[in-house]
Amino acid sequence: MAKYSRIAVLMGGPSAEREVSLVSGRECAIGLRDAGYDVVEIDAGDDLPERLRAEKPDAVFNALHGRWGEDGCVQGILEWMGIPYTHSGVMASAVAMDKERAKNVFAAEGLPVAASILATPAEIAARHVMPLPYVVKPYNEGSSVGIHVVTEGANTSPQVDTPDAPAHLMVERYVPGRELTVAVMDGEPQAVTEIIAEGWYDYAAKYEAGGSRHEIPANLPEDITAQCLDYAARAHRCLGCRGVSRSDFRYDPDKGEVIILETNTQPGMTPTSLVPEQAAHRGTSFADLVAWMVEDASCGR
Is 264 a catalytic residue? Predict the structure, then answer.
């Protein structure tokens, strides 16, 4: 028997990933209605507490992406209000969203990470702050927002010192090879998907129809598949995640090297998203997936 009946789906919000979140939220709302829940959709803004008080949901499905919705802020509001919510709690959400701190946790767990530093936009624009090739990216955004790949032979560094640039950016060793991802559901890794895109797996490749194709299960040596599944489960656990997470990897076949890039505590739930695809591969329909996520909701870690 379901614990909850009236569900508020939070979507949109003020982050750079607003449009993706709106699509995720709408899909989740449809799935939850198909599963028999009474659903209200909320485009989350400054009036979120007032909206929640007016709607009186039993639980919240958090379909927000990016800063504010995914970094512990909204989670703190929901805990303060005593409303159960999906996905990870305040601490896991905050640490996972901060890529540098998450990598420190991964390294302490013994997971392989790429060397990286934090630098100011002015420092990055003035010179190569790391041997080529490398990647420049925000350390607290997702969905491949604001990423620059600096390849071998690049004469100039990326001009990232724009008026709206953050105080610091992450500069990370570029890891060549294949793009892999593993969803974890209730602590159990689901499958390894290879993401095949033309060029860099950027925002368009992630979310536009035909931007990439997914091979599930990925055609990998058995030991590499086992490594990815193990690393994803350990990342989920050492960050303190709950519910569903998704960890992304790069696999360099020439070196036999698997590197964990990041863990997403609120993975996308759009029609092209990877978690619903892995769930379907394991025999779980989209409606059953979002229903499970709602029933797993809690208020606190």
Answer: yes
Q: Are residues 189 and 273 in the same domain?
A: yes
| Dist. CA 275–CA 49, nearest whole Å | 29
Q: What is the pLDDT of residues 39-91, one digit of tens each?
A: 999 999 999 999 999 999 999 999 999 888 999 999 999 999 999 999 999 99
For residue 85, indicate whether it is catalytic. Answer: no
Quick check: is 301 catalytic? no
Residues facing 41 on adjacent strands: 9
Instruction: Give me the number of domains the chain comprises.
Output: 3
Q: Which residues contact 235 (CB under 8 A, 6 or more apart)?
A: 106, 109, 111, 184, 241, 245, 247, 260, 263
pLDDT > 90 fraction of the chain, expressed in percent and rounded:
79
Confidence of residue 138 (pLDDT cuts 50, 70, 90): confident
Domain membership of residue 202 (yes or no) is yes
Residues 34 and 182 reside in one and the same domain: no
Burial 143-155 (b: 16+ CB within 10 A, else e): bbbebbebeeeee
When pLDDT is averaged across residues 252-274 and rounded to a whole number, the result is: 92
pLDDT computed for residue 202 by the predictor: 47
Query: Any catalytic annotation for residue 248?
Result: yes
Query: Which CATH number is 74's domain given?
Result: 3.40.50.20
Domain match, 196 and 125 both: no
Q: Give the residue numbers spanning the domain of 152.
A: 116-173
Answer with the residue of higher pLDDT: 212 or 26.
26
Single-letter amino acid code for the residue at 275: V
Say what the pTM is: 0.91
Q: Which of 246, 247, 251, 273 is catalytic?
A: 246
Tell me: do 169 and 241 sit in the same domain: no
Tell me which of 4, 37, 134, 207 is the catalytic residue: 207
Q: Could you identify the residue written with the tokens 């996520």?
A: 293
Q: Do you know the residue count of the chain?
A: 301
